[in-house]
Amino acid sequence: MQRPSLIVKKEVTTIGAAALQDGTSLLVVSAPAAYAALVNENEFVSLKGAEAAGITAANDIAQKALVWEHVKDFFALASGTPLHVLLVPQTATGADSTFKDLFDGIAGLATHYGALKTYLQTQGGDIKLVGVAVNPADGVSEADTTSISADLEAAITHAHTFANGEFEEHRPVEIILENRKFTGTATAATDLRAKNAGNVMVVSSRDKNRRLALEKDVDENPLIPSAVHYAAVGLALGKAASIQVNQNIGRLTVPPLFQTKDNLPVEEVEFSGAQSLNAFDKASLDMLHNKGYTFIDRYAGYAGFYFVNDNTCEDATKSNSRLSLNRVANKAARITRATFLNFLKATIQVDGNTGQLLASVVERFKDVITRAITEEMLQHPDPARLPEISSVEINIDPTQNVLSTKKVVINQSIVPTGSVDVIETIISLDNPS
Questions:
Q1: φ, ψ for residue 37, nearest 5 deg
Q2: Could you tell me which residues come within 8 angstroms of residue 69 by beta carbon, excluding any fewer than 6 positions away?
Q3: Please, how many CA atoms are within 13 Å of residue 44, restricted to the half-sphere of its CB?
Q4: pTM of this prediction?
Q5: 311-336 pLDDT, tens per residue?
Q6: Which of 43, 74, 300, 349 is the most buried (most CB within 10 A)?
């Protein structure tokens, strides 16, 4: 007999073209053991707090690893939002197994995996977003890529599976991976959407001026070798953590008045292999976007830089092809579990003749979950919180025989809010005479 449990399932569908700490994040970074020894805390709500615990710019330079840099980027956008930092050991062979180790629990690759799994367990589902950055061991050169490393390519699928496992453990997370040393053409780039890994986002660009400052000092002396190929995963993580779950990390303005720009603290954009954003023409950037890459972009005639979109490594027609859509589904799952745990193992009356659910019980279940999701995601009491969904509908088949199955199946249909990707206007010049 199955142990009493509440099961929440998330269905991936095909679509057309809070009391909850929705932004609580975990940044996982491979770093030297000596760096980890300097850090005496792992949860922060400000850059100042992280610095007091040993994550500093000076330690980045001394240990030749980017940790403070990613934390700094996060808090530049999400100050006051909880950020956990987990430092995992660098692999002896450099970067070519760090990602895979982190998400693959098979024998021989369980060290990093165990550390991440254990940390998420200890946090009891509080972590909603996971960002991962890699620092190759000093002196280890990274292999050339045509878009993504072999390690990252293998890890994308593992990370998606890992996130599905966390969902089943009632700790849903979304994962943002650093795409180091992106090089090559858009045509040759690996199609990330073909990976069918909707729980995973891959970030591939950064601020060129920041990279130059990290790579060498004013006298051209080398500072942090791993900075040569880094991508701004901290910015993506911070942007996601700073906005509501249904909002696109690439948005240009801040709702509801749309009068304030929401641009990134970036001066000049390049990809992680040092190719300038300007080196790619419109067709190439469109192709990279359509292949699921997330990078920093600009808009002609509009000041500032913004993420191109909130792409995940999934077919664009699927309901998990956007980070924002996934976050909406995960939040609804958390609310559902918290609401219905009160009913687990509860005594309910059934029809004396059929053993099926009474109409009053059906309506009670529908009312409770509808109200919970509506209050948290559709009509939040805080007027500053905009709706995160368009509607919710609950359906419960009243003919379920609870006496025989010991189970009640509840179907939720949530209509998400939309995201305007293209605005088409037609301009004509008319002669009024």
A1: -65, -20
A2: 57, 60, 210, 214, 227, 230, 234
A3: 24
A4: 0.91
A5: 999 999 999 999 999 999 999 999 99
A6: 74
